[in-house]
Amino acid sequence: MLARRSQFVGLLATFVVLGNCGIISESQLRSSYDYIVIGGGTAGLVVANRLSEDPRVSVLVVEAGPLDKGENFIHIPRFVGTAGDGLTSVYNWNFPAEPQPELNGRAINPPAGRCVGGSSAINALLFDRGSINDYNSWEELGNPGWGWKSLLPYFIKIETYNHPPKEIAQPFNITFDPSAHGYSGPVQSSYGRGFTNQTDVIFDAFKDLGVPREVDGTNGRKVNALWGSFSLHPTNRSRSYARPAYFEPVLKRRNYDALLETRVTRILTSSSKGGRKSKANGIEIAKSSTSARRTIKANREVILSAGAVASPKILQLSGIGPKKVLQSLNIPVVEDLPGVGYNYQDHSATPVVQPFAEDPQAVNDTIGEYLYYKNRTGPWSGSGLALGFLPLSTISNRSSDILARYAFQSNSHLPADLHPTLLAGYERQKQLLIKYLPTDLTAASEYIYGGGAVVATILHPFSRGYTIINSTDPFANQIINQRYLSNPIDYDVLVDQVRYARRILATPSIQALGPLGPEVLPGEGVEGEEELREFVRGILSTFSHVSGTCSMMPRQLGGVVDKNLRVYGVDGLRVVDASVIPLVPGTHLQATVYAIAEKASDIIKRGD
Ligand SMILES: Cc1cc2nc3c(=O)[nH]c(=O)nc-3n(C[C@H](O)[C@H](O)[C@H](O)COP(=O)(O)OP(=O)(O)OC[C@H]3O[C@@H](n4cnc5c(N)ncnc54)[C@H](O)[C@@H]3O)c2cc1C
Ligand SMILES: *[C@@H]1O[C@H](CO)[C@@H](O)[C@H](O)[C@H]1NC(C)=O
Ligand SMILES: *[C@@H]1O[C@H](CO)[C@@H](O)[C@H](O)[C@H]1NC(C)=O
Ligand SMILES: *[C@@H]1O[C@H](CO)[C@@H](O)[C@H](O)[C@H]1NC(C)=O
Ligand SMILES: *[C@@H]1O[C@H](CO)[C@@H](O)[C@H](O)[C@H]1NC(C)=O
Ligand SMILES: *[C@@H]1O[C@H](CO)[C@@H](O)[C@H](O)[C@H]1NC(C)=O
Ligand SMILES: *[C@@H]1O[C@H](CO)[C@@H](O)[C@H](O)[C@H]1NC(C)=O
Ligand SMILES: *[C@@H]1O[C@H](CO)[C@@H](O)[C@H](O)[C@H]1NC(C)=O
């Protein structure tokens, strides 16, 4: 235990020395900065890094959380996402969500990182991209320049791809498309050394079921059976996240300041252009709810990167959001933007479980720990993920019926008082989902197998939620209502994705692993449509892919930011984080968020 800790003390010591340069205390703040970035998370650290490349401009990043202390659950794949550790730690906001009527009153709290690096510090390491269709649909939602072709250079820019050595690549058939990858970017993409014969057994199951194998899911063909790499450093096998990738390397810059453990409570605005348009000209900060507020001026721009849960809250607290919400709290309306906090989307998962004999190659923790510290190999070092990203027609034998019902569905599942622009935006999204979900280049559900569990995740949910403030206190919780399954058609996809997960478990390849007993989830005999729906209600969980709450879309579709990520109606203010994603892509989100932030940095530098 002590030996393990000491590995990280060295890192910490290095950091403290670095820290004297860029991490400042409140008393060291300048009175103004050219750019102020709110949130030192995944996107915010990219933007602060890129903007400060120009020594003539000053950049401040304000982060609510602290530096992580190099805990095992941050760095070691074995401990990533372990309950009672990473996911409930001081580095998680622990936002409370509303009980969900369709989930038997269960609340699903969205995890979100609260430290330097944000959610990239606590996520599950999978490093992937969506399909061509996913990004092209953003462009078709009225955002020229945000399709697959425009984003690919940024996916390449963020990445240093490390293909596994022959001893792993060959037996596990890990192939890749060299043209899809970057080889000198800040984020390390690699495979651990903890592969066992069961790591890719789901590929055998897919073969049994006739699911084709892709060369490389990052080249835009994010469908069928494919390998997923990790955001993992290829030699020390510790997490590669925004802190080592984008923060530590630039702390020495004299024009870069970072203020930590400080919350931005409000964006300050002034009226300009004869009072017709507001301009963001600074921020208000506080250490705690009772401490004095302090303001800092922004000479050029404020960039909001607090993540998809917190960014809409900060806008609303600043008078930018749905007029009804602001007026109910007596917040002066700076800009009436009905989309702020709406169009909330997430990926949610269902498991199917049958116990199997233990993987004979699995190694116990004593050996795992030894191998990791001795050699950075073994199960603690992680592996890669054998994934299925399956089109709707693969997982469901009623896919055209589902889409037809979706196409002709009334709006009765939506809140009656939904703003007409949001309705128009949801309608446009519907048209795009109906266009793309029948194709073989759009995945409807993701499948992962491990230890007797097939976990299936819905990638293009039809339900939309919201998050709004109910208090003017920035330290009070906001209302988070994901409205999971509020669109009844999501049930059909979820029930069919459970059925397909069962088909995976039932394949000869999986059954050859030696079942120790019958299926335990949903459980033998749970067969009918209604029984499976009840199972879904009791088990659905989040994949932590919150997006959409400050969507990049035309204003008349309920958008909050334009294609240059500028907030409508407010000069000098942009949003850059997962909240601008207008339609959640069929992928885990981190690489997409990094790419958005790189592209945004170029846009800001150009002054577009
Ligand atoms: C538990 C978990 C597992 C995940 N697993 C994966 C995965 O395996 N693969 C993958 O690709 N994606 C995964 N994701 C998703 C991905 O990590 C996120 O979508 C992405 O990191 C979000 O980046 P962001 O910049 O939008 O927000 P964040 O990275 O969350 O950054 C927001 C930052 O703003 C700060 N902040 C918030 N409010 C304030 C305030 N008022 N003042 C100052 N600072 C503030 C926060 O503390 C935080 O540091 C996971 C996410 C989570 C939470
Ligand atoms: C596991 O894979 C290795 C290498 O391909 C092979 O030699 C071995 O027989 C396999 N073991 C089992 C139990 O299948
Ligand atoms: C290996 O992967 C390729 C895709 O890159 C696929 O075409 C091929 O069938 C796979 N081989 C085996 C033995 O599964
Ligand atoms: C792993 O190595 C990278 C690159 O040298 C470094 O940035 C990171 O801090 C290291 N991680 C740990 C936990 O030592
Ligand atoms: C794990 O391996 C160690 C070393 O071989 C052994 O002493 C220990 O009993 C094993 N533990 C379990 C739970 O199997
Ligand atoms: C240590 O790592 C090397 C290179 O990956 C590998 O060949 C070797 O088998 C490992 N040693 C142990 C004890 O696992
Ligand atoms: C579709 O699949 C379900 C469940 O697997 C089955 O009961 C049903 O008969 C199938 N329907 C068609 C039209 O094939
Ligand atoms: C606002 O909503 C949050 C989250 O549901 C709740 O915890 C809080 O009590 C509510 N506050 C008020 C003033 O109603």
Estimated structural class: alpha/beta
Helix content: 25-40%
Radius of gyration over all CA atoms, rounded: 23 Å
Query: How many helical stretches?
Result: 18
Distance between the termini: 52 Å
CATH superfamily, called what? Glucose Oxidase, domain 3
The gross shape turns out to be: globular
Small-molecule binders here are: flavin-adenine dinucleotide, 2-acetamido-2-deoxy-beta-D-glucopyranose
CATH topology description:
Glucose Oxidase, domain 3
Number of domains: 1
| CATH class category | Alpha Beta
Question: Low-confidence stretches at least 5 residues in length (pLDDT < 50)?
Answer: 1-20
Going by CATH, the architecture would be 2-Layer Sandwich
Measured by DSSP, the beta-strand proportion falls in: 15-25%
The count of strands amounts to 22
Mean pLDDT: 95
Reported for the largest beta sheet, the result is: 9 strands, mixed
Structural summary, described in words:
This protein has helices at about 1-20, 40-50, 70-75, 130-140, 150-160, 165-170, 200-210, 240-245, 305-315, 325-330, 365-375, 390-395, 400-405, 420-435, 490-505, 510, 530-540, 590-605; strands at about 25, 30-40, 60, 125, 160, 185-190, 225-230, 255-260, 265-270, 275-285, 295-305, 320, 335, 350-355, 385-390, 445-450, 455-460, 465-470, 480, 540, 570, 575. About 30% of the residues lie in helices and about 15% in strands. It has a single domain (about 70-245, about 345-605), classed as 2-Layer Sandwich (Glucose Oxidase, domain 3), CATH 3.30.560.10. It is globular and about 70 Å long. The protein is built from 18 helices and 22 strands. Helix 15 (about 490-505) packs across helix 17 (about 530-540). The chain has about 600 residues and is an alpha/beta fold. One 2-acetamido-2-deoxy-beta-D-glucopyranose binds near residues 171, 197 and 360. The site of one 2-acetamido-2-deoxy-beta-D-glucopyranose has 3 residues, from loops. One of its GO terms (biological process) is secondary metabolite biosynthetic process. GO terms for molecular function: flavin adenine dinucleotide binding; oxidoreductase activity, acting on CH-OH group of donors. InterPro entries: FAD/NAD-bd_sf, GMC_OxRdtase, GMC_OxRdtase_N, GMC_OxRtase_C. Keywords: FAD, Flavoprotein, Signal.
